[in-house]
Amino acid sequence: QAQVVESGGGLVQPGGSLRLSCAASGIIFGIFAMGWYRQVPGKQRELVATITSGGSTNYADFVKGRFTISRDNAKNTVYLQMDDLKPEDTAVYYCNAKQPTLGYDYWGQGTQVTVSS
Questions:
Q1: pLDDT tens-digit series, residues 11-21
Q2: Do 113 and 9 contact (CB within 8 A), yes or no?
Protein backbone atom coordinates (compact mmCIF):
# COMPACT_ATOMS: atom_id res chain seq x y z
CA GLN A 1 0.00 0.00 0.00
CA ALA A 2 1.01 3.62 -0.40
CA GLN A 3 3.30 4.98 2.28
CA VAL A 4 5.46 8.03 2.90
CA VAL A 5 8.02 7.97 5.70
CA GLU A 6 9.92 10.97 7.00
CA SER A 7 13.38 10.93 8.55
CA GLY A 8 16.13 13.35 9.49
CA GLY A 9 14.57 15.35 12.28
CA GLY A 10 16.34 16.14 15.51
CA LEU A 11 17.75 18.81 17.79
CA VAL A 12 19.83 21.59 16.27
CA GLN A 13 21.15 24.92 17.51
CA PRO A 14 19.89 28.21 16.06
CA GLY A 15 21.68 28.96 12.82
CA GLY A 16 22.26 25.27 12.17
CA SER A 17 21.07 23.00 9.37
CA LEU A 18 19.12 19.80 8.95
CA ARG A 19 18.04 17.79 5.93
CA LEU A 20 14.74 15.99 6.07
CA SER A 21 14.01 13.06 3.79
CA CYS A 22 10.71 11.52 2.78
CA ALA A 23 10.73 8.11 1.14
CA ALA A 24 7.62 7.08 -0.76
CA SER A 25 6.56 3.56 -1.62
CA GLY A 26 3.55 1.99 -3.26
CA ILE A 27 2.94 4.97 -5.54
CA ILE A 28 4.07 6.11 -8.98
CA PHE A 29 6.27 8.76 -7.42
CA GLY A 30 6.92 10.73 -10.59
CA ILE A 31 3.28 11.78 -11.03
CA PHE A 32 2.84 13.03 -7.48
CA ALA A 33 3.29 16.53 -6.18
CA MET A 34 5.24 16.39 -2.93
CA GLY A 35 5.16 18.76 -0.03
CA TRP A 36 6.44 19.49 3.44
CA TYR A 37 4.15 20.89 6.10
CA ARG A 38 4.69 21.61 9.78
CA GLN A 39 2.61 21.82 12.90
CA VAL A 40 3.09 22.98 16.47
CA PRO A 41 0.75 22.07 19.31
CA GLY A 42 -2.39 24.18 19.31
CA LYS A 43 -1.90 25.48 15.79
CA GLN A 44 -3.03 24.37 12.36
CA ARG A 45 -0.71 22.50 10.08
CA GLU A 46 0.95 24.94 7.68
CA LEU A 47 2.58 24.60 4.30
CA VAL A 48 6.37 24.86 4.23
CA ALA A 49 7.26 23.96 0.65
CA THR A 50 5.95 22.00 -2.31
CA ILE A 51 7.41 20.60 -5.49
CA THR A 52 5.36 19.52 -8.48
CA SER A 53 5.91 16.40 -10.57
CA GLY A 54 7.65 18.69 -13.06
CA GLY A 55 9.97 20.16 -10.44
CA SER A 56 8.37 23.56 -9.87
CA THR A 57 8.74 24.72 -6.29
CA ASN A 58 6.75 26.90 -3.94
CA TYR A 59 7.74 28.14 -0.49
CA ALA A 60 6.07 29.76 2.45
CA ASP A 61 7.33 33.29 2.96
CA PHE A 62 8.82 32.42 6.35
CA VAL A 63 11.27 29.91 4.83
CA LYS A 64 12.19 31.59 1.56
CA GLY A 65 15.92 31.83 1.22
CA ARG A 66 16.53 29.37 4.05
CA PHE A 67 14.86 26.08 3.01
CA THR A 68 15.17 24.17 -0.25
CA ILE A 69 12.88 21.39 -1.42
CA SER A 70 14.08 18.88 -3.98
CA ARG A 71 13.13 15.47 -5.29
CA ASP A 72 14.94 12.43 -6.64
CA ASN A 73 12.49 10.46 -8.74
CA ALA A 74 14.95 7.59 -9.12
CA LYS A 75 14.94 7.14 -5.34
CA ASN A 76 11.24 7.97 -4.77
CA THR A 77 12.42 10.55 -2.25
CA VAL A 78 11.81 14.21 -1.54
CA TYR A 79 14.14 16.31 0.59
CA LEU A 80 13.91 19.48 2.61
CA GLN A 81 17.24 21.18 3.22
CA MET A 82 16.81 23.56 6.13
CA ASP A 83 19.51 26.16 6.75
CA ASP A 84 19.76 29.06 9.19
CA LEU A 85 17.24 27.40 11.45
CA LYS A 86 15.42 29.53 14.02
CA PRO A 87 13.68 28.54 17.25
CA GLU A 88 10.36 29.33 15.60
CA ASP A 89 11.04 26.55 13.08
CA THR A 90 10.52 24.05 15.90
CA ALA A 91 7.64 21.80 14.86
CA VAL A 92 6.67 18.37 13.68
CA TYR A 93 7.36 18.25 9.96
CA TYR A 94 5.09 16.16 7.76
CA CYS A 95 5.56 14.87 4.24
CA ASN A 96 2.64 14.88 1.81
CA ALA A 97 2.19 13.12 -1.51
CA LYS A 98 -0.67 14.40 -3.61
CA GLN A 99 -2.13 13.48 -6.98
CA PRO A 100 -5.39 15.47 -7.15
CA THR A 101 -6.48 14.28 -10.58
CA LEU A 102 -6.56 10.70 -9.33
CA GLY A 103 -7.73 11.65 -5.85
CA TYR A 104 -4.69 10.47 -3.93
CA ASP A 105 -3.44 12.27 -0.84
CA TYR A 106 -1.00 10.60 1.55
CA TRP A 107 0.63 11.85 4.77
CA GLY A 108 3.55 10.58 6.77
CA GLN A 109 3.71 10.28 10.53
CA GLY A 110 5.93 13.30 10.95
CA THR A 111 9.41 13.98 12.26
CA GLN A 112 10.22 16.33 15.13
CA VAL A 113 12.54 19.27 14.50
CA THR A 114 13.66 21.20 17.56
CA VAL A 115 15.77 24.34 17.26
CA SER A 116 17.20 25.31 20.61
CA SER A 117 20.45 26.30 22.27
A1: 999 999 999 99
A2: yes
Q: Name 26's Cβ contacts closer than 8 Å, sequence gap at least 6.
A: 1, 2, 3
Half-sphere exposure of 35 (CA within 13 A, CB side): 20
> How many other C-beta atoms lie within 10 A of the C-beta of residue 62?
12
CA dist 100 and 61 (Å) reads: 24
Neighbours of 36 (CB within 10 A): 26
The per-residue pLDDT for range 27-40, each reduced to its tens digit, is: 999 999 999 999 99
